[in-house]
């Protein structure tokens, strides 16, 4: 079994650990903004294809002493890079963390890159070209005190980039956070779902992908597909298996609405990009006129909270309206509101049955639950 490390948004470590266990990971151990786990090559491919919550899967290959630039360079050269890279392949190095001597991530990444290509030059008389965008091998280095963990990034670009969302509205919710909210709300596909402030459609689309058991990675490429040990037969088997296990019809309807006709158009484009145009009901509607489309269901919405869009005073009216509509028109439903503004949340005027802490990027937020009787 190999060791892996999944990077994840702050606060979602436990939810990501549960997801990894469901996918088949062994010895799962959450840490700050990440989860350690073990598995074979099949699991590595499967996690990249199926994870809805994590950002990247790193494959650690060495932990080396890195007191200063010279020691780091020397110890990176002690790794046999021909196992992972040949001169025809492109290369990039990303670095996080620091110590007192290596306190600039760009400089640290440069040292590692130099050590790798200098080894290639000596061994082959030629070296890999550097390509920051979609390289064949993306090396991740993390400095912690006087040690550096060197890993290969199997995901390439972040897994939250599903490939369906070139069209985005203002302040879009990350796909990974949208799925985490669905899990935190304990939404199941046998319940109707509504986002009455859906913007470019992330929450309804992620709900539909989950309900139809569509692997979130089907429409994109991964870093490991360029690796020397890439098993294309195994990968094709996993793709075929995923496609065969998809459902064709939602068990219950999924709705998304917004007052802005332009962003509803973006949402419809995004749904079309992942083959969901006939599954999700997107419609342009003012919040004030919205009615419950079914007798029961789950609402999740992410209204603006004054951090990036909207004026706080004006937003008070929006939050009050949300509370009024929930109370008057959505009896039998359960509503969840994600907000990063405590004062605004009070304007909803309903008693919360649960409050769940979560981060939206760097903004500390709360997911508020309302039982509507």
UniProtKB/TrEMBL annotation:
Transmembrane segments: none annotated. It holds the Pfam family THUMP. InterPro entries: DNA_methylase_N6_adenine_CS, RlmKL-like_Mtase, RlmKL-like_Mtase_CS, RlmL_1st, SAM-dependent_MTases_sf, THUMP_dom. Keywords: Methyltransferase, RNA-binding, Transferase. GO terms for molecular function: RNA binding; rRNA (guanine-N2-)-methyltransferase activity; rRNA (guanine-N7-)-methyltransferase activity. Residues 43-154 form the THUMP domain. Gene3D superfamilies: 3.30.2130.30, Vaccinia Virus protein VP39. SMART domains: THUMP (SM00981). PANTHER family: RIBOSOMAL RNA LARGE SUBUNIT METHYLTRANSFERASE K/L (PTHR47313), RIBOSOMAL RNA LARGE SUBUNIT METHYLTRANSFERASE K_L (PTHR47313:SF1). This is rRNA (Guanine-N(2)-)-methyltransferase. It comes from Stanieria cyanosphaera (strain ATCC 29371 / PCC 7437).
């Amino acid at each position: 079994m190999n060791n892996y490390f999944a990077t994840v948004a702050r606060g979602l470590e436990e939810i990501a650990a549960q997801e990894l266990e469901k996918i088949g990971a062994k010895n799962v151990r959450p840490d700050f903004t990440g989860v350690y786990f073990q598995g074979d090559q099949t699991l590595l491919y499967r996690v990249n294809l199926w994870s809805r919550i994590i950002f990247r899967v790193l494959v650690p290959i060495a932990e080396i002493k890195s007191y200063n630039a010279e020691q780091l360079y020397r110890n990176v050269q002690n790794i046999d890079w021909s196992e992972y890279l040949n001169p025809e392949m492109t290369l990039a190095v990303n670095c996080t963390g620091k110590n007192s001597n290596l306190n600039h991530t760009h400089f640290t990444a440069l040292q590692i890159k130099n050590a790798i290509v200098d080894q290639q030059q000596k061994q082959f008389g030629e070296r890999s070209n550097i390509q920051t965008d979609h390289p064949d091998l993306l090396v991740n280095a993390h400095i912690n005190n006087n040690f550096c963990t060197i890993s290969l990034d199997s995901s390439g670009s972040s897994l939250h980039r599903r490939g369906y969302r070139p069209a985005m509205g203002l302040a879009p919710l990350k796909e990974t956070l949208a799925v985490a909210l669905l899990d935190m709300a304990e939404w199941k596909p046998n319940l109707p779902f509504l986002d009455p402030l859906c913007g470019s459609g992330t929450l309804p689309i992620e709900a539909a992908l989950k309900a139809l058991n569509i692997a979130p990675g089907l429409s994109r490429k991964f870093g490991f597909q360029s690796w020397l040990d890439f098993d294309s037969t195994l990968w094709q088997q996993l793709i075929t298996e995923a496609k065969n296990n998809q459902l064709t019809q939602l068990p219950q309807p999924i709705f998304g609405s917004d007052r802005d006709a332009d962003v509803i158009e973006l949402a419809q484009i995004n749904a079309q990009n992942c083959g969901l145009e006939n599954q999700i009901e997107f419609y342009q509607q003012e919040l004030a006129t919205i009615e419950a489309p079914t007798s029961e269901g789950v609402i999740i919405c992410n209204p603006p909270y004054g951090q990036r869009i909207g004026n706080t005073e004006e937003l008070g009216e929006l939050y009050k309206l949300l509370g009024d509509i929930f109370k008057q028109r959505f009896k039998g439903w359960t509503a969840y509101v994600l907000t990063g503004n405590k004062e605004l949340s009070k304007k909803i005027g309903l008693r919360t049955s649960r409050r769940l802490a979560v981060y939206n990027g760097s903004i500390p937020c709360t997911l508020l639950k309302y039982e509507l009787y």
